[in-house]
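Example (one chain per record):
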Amino acid sequence: MLRRLLVLIVTGLQIIAPVQAVPTVRIKDIVSFQGVRNNQLVGYGLVVGLNGTGDSISSIPYTQESLAGMLERLGVNIRNAEDGKINLSGKNIAAVMVTATMPAFSRHGTNIDVSVSALGDAKDLRGGTLLVTPLLGADGDVYAVAQGAVATNGFNADAKSGSKIIKGVPTSAKIVNGAIVEKEVGFELASMQRMNISLKNPDFTTAQRISAAINQKFGSLSKATDPTTVSLIIPEQYRSDLVTFLTHLEQLNVQPDQPAKIIIDDQDGVIVMGENVRISTIAVTQGSITIKVLENPQVSQPNPFTQVQRATIVDRSEITVKEEQGKIAILQSGISLQDLVNGLNALGASPRDLISILRSIKAAGAIQADIEVI
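Predicted structure:
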């Protein structure tokens, strides 16, 4: 009876014991599919209707030529008949660069957002209207045409006294649905029989796990060819309905492997450490020395009945050196990220101190991780 009771207790504990969940993600969140990509577009145009905050036309030659060329296409000639020069003034026009991202499979007639950025000496694009601007791809073809009223969150205000207030970036604006797609990218997904899947974060282990998950679900039809690419054969039953196959594939869960890496941002004092970072046995001490210099000049008055009749300023400096007591922490071999953070926090180290400490530990060869400075 006692033995049976012990067996029942152990079995019950195993049932109610919490099982640590293994973090998994969907394949669609860590990969991109061959051919399914965005396309960058760029164009040059004019923004008109500004309230005196545009380019100085008389000093910006490309704004002059762009305005003259546009008016000539509309049947208006503003060039001097004798020498062909352009005599324009005013600040209601601005030359701008227009950029846009054309999503994959954008069809003829769909709208996309565009960004507008001043190219000359314009101060503010608020209230302006972008004129018809062709947007070109990397091959030089026109894929979209942009036009519309620009919108910016920034502003620029000047006073006659010289005071100035600037909020945000008033020389950069957006036009929501400001461009219409005129040409589609020639890519037919339905005709593909093979496809490559690209990992957003290349890794051998993750690529192999993706291939194993696909093969377990659909059969032996994928293979990891390198840390970035998983080659895939489209199953026969899905070749007429590739969208359904990719939908099922995207929802598969895998456990991505995370390399041991520490990211350091010196400028902002930010440190990001992966959970696989490990430390060998090492002792760390942290202390600081504060040097304070005070300048206290004194005035020396001349003695009576002397030839020197003027007061003299004498320099007096006071230097104080204060050394804080250092603290020593011993980090045991193979400690985890949490142990490392707790140990460094126990020293009272600031983010800047943490950066120096981590670099010193890496230089001592006691940290098993890559350190990347951005």
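Caption: Confidence is low (pLDDT under 50) at residues 5-10, 12-21.
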